Structures are given as structure tokens and as C-alpha cells.
Amino acid sequence: MEVLQELALQTISLYHFLTPYLTPLTSTLNSAYTHIYPIALPYVNRLLILAHDSPALVSVALLLLFLLLAMRILGAVQRLVVWCFRLILRTAFYGGVVVLGCVVWQRGVERTARDVGAWGKVLAEVWGREYERWEGYQKLQQQQQGQVGGGVGKGSSWR
């Protein structure tokens, strides 16, 4: 209960602080309301009569409003995810550049180049072994399909 009382006091003090700034805005809105009300009243009445005569139109309009709102929210979420993904990729890239610069600074250009060449050689060997292994699996699968399926077309797969 104390929290609500404190919140109410803060709200009242904020209102009294902002009153001089909000007075011109409220007077402008009030005069606009008094000028626009007589002009807009017949159109609003016609719209309400139309909505009363055909409630299906109101249902469709609400459905379209909810669909529009959902699309706006999903668009904002998509932009947020893309922004985070780009941030992560840029951070990883520039972090790698900084780490590479630190390694070169600490070990020297020649020793770093030798190490990178050795790592590339090991990576190429591992990739070659894995490529041969999976190529063997593919040949074995093709042989098994040839024996079981009785030919091309039966049980063939794009893998």
C-alpha cells in the first residue's frame, strides 16, 4: 500500500511540475475538438449505423487490425534479431582481428605465418580424410540400393 501512495505522490508532483508546459497543448486540443466535433459527428454516426447493420464488417475490420498489429510486431522482432545477429558477427570478426594482431605482436610475423601454415595443413588433411570417408559412405549406399532396389529409379535418393 505504501508503494501506491508513493506512486500517487510522485504522479501528482509530476502533474504539477508539467502543468505550465501542458496548458498550451490542452487548450489547442480543446479548441480543435470544439471545431472538429460538429463536422465529424455525421460521419461517425453513419459509420456506427453501418457497423450496427452489418456486424460482419466490424469483425473483418477487427481481424485486419489484429493482423496488421501482428505483422508490425513480427517486423520489429525480425529487425531486432537481424540487428543482434549482425552485432554478434561484427564483434566476432573484429575480436578475431584483434586476437590475430595480438598474436602477431607477441610472436612476430614469421612465426605466426609458420603456425598459420601448419594449422592450414592440418585442417586440409582432416578435411580430406572426412571427404573420403563420406564419399565411401555414399558409394556404399549406392551399392546397397543397387542390390536391394534392383536398379535405378527404385529407392534412389538424391543423397
TrEMBL record:
Ranges annotated as spanning the membrane: 56-74, 80-105
Q: Which keywords belong to this entry?
A: Membrane, Transmembrane, Transmembrane helix
Under InterPro entries, the record lists: APQ12
Query: What name does the UniProt record give this protein?
Result: Uncharacterized protein
Naturally occurring in which organism (per UniProt): Lachnellula hyalina
